[in-house]
Amino acid sequence: MTISTHVLDTERGQPAAGVRVELYAPDGTLAGDGVTDSDGRIPELGTGAGGAYRLVFHPPSPFFTRVELEMQLADGYHHVPLLISSYGCASYRGS
Fold this sequence. Notes:
The chain is an all-beta fold. Helix content is 0%, strand content 57%. Strand 3 (20-24) and strand 4 form a beta hairpin.
């Protein structure tokens, strides 16, 4: 299993650079972490066996200080983006 992510600031209509993201493995250990680049991306956040992973985003928002997603990931490549604005967020399974 390989996972990548990107963060888009939908309020400003641009990528969100400088967002810290952590990936936690099914056993709760930190499996990867990084900071989004100028395009809002982390091309390879982590790798591991399939299972229930948690992605934790720390966006620059006056409301959200932490956005956490728990996903069941099988073997293969996964891309999980976060769309964020000051008072709203959404995610989806990317390709």
